[in-house]
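Hi! If you just cloned this repository, the fastest way to understand the data is to look at a raw example. We've pasted two of them here, unedited. The first protein comes first, obviously.
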Amino acid sequence: MTPRTEDRPQMSVEEFEELERHAPETVRLEFINGRVQVKPVTDGNHDHIIAWLQRLCMQHRPELWLYGDRGVKVERHRKGRARPDGILAPFGFPAGHGDWSDTGGVLMAVEVTSHDSDTHQRDRVEKPDGYAGAGIPVYLLIDRDDGSVVVYNQPENGRYLHAEKLPFGASVKLPDPVDIVLDTAPLKEFAD
């Protein structure tokens, strides 16, 4: 007989952080909704999209930096840990933070969908709630599966009040405090 989820012992954030410290470099772990999740290693197209976004952010907001794969503390009540594909924050943001940064000062979290069975639940359901709950003003989801960009903003009570989905090729306004307009035409070559 398998124990019900609520009967299983819960891993503490301290136990997760210890596990994550000892994981091989080829494995990226996150702690979302009280569960350990393995985040897929990125492919070349994924990395190219992040580099494209980094370049645009630098051109429009040179005082900011798009930090890739930076660990952040999410889910205030459950003490979650996430590794967004990118976080936009003032240059120098993570200095002195250790492995996991508080989200104060983070303007935007970015995820690019991966081609795995968990991407829907992770990137489209759990991450928006985690980032909103952590008070990150903007969440940008670059969804390669359906060739779209989704901009979430206005976090309140653990949810984003507004989300706008646009196809690759559209002009996408990243709202305040990011205040950048993206020409997403270059993303069309990455739509699956």
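Ok, and the second one:
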Amino acid sequence: MTRYEDGSPYAYSPGTVPYGVEAVNVGWLEKDSEFPRGEAPAEFVQSLALLCRDDSRNAMRGLFPCQLPHQQDPGYPVSITVGTREVVLGNAEVRVVDQNGRWLIAPNLVHHYVTAHSYLPPAEFVEAVTARRSAPKS
């Protein structure tokens, strides 16, 4: 996967964003990345899991593994259990809208980064995910 700084203009698959919509990157991490760390609110983590299960977008054919260091191998593909369903991560994006209408786009692997690596996304992403403000489907 490609590394993009949080808040930088979205560039992974720009043709999937409607004309005139401002979209920025969140959570595009890779090996040797420096990133903000902290404990994410439980409600955010739960909402993010539901978003990954119910509203992943821009699915790709391949699966990206987590390239960050681990104490134990997370397995391949990385997955989470949401309710009774196993959700594979590393193959799509989550897209939410901040309070100003800007799209915040993250790989769905962001859930793993938050829970396994203590990645703390920007506050506007946490707020938008917790509010479950998904970007409109184009």
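That's it. A detail worth noticing about the second one: Residues 8-15+22-30+37-131 form one domain.
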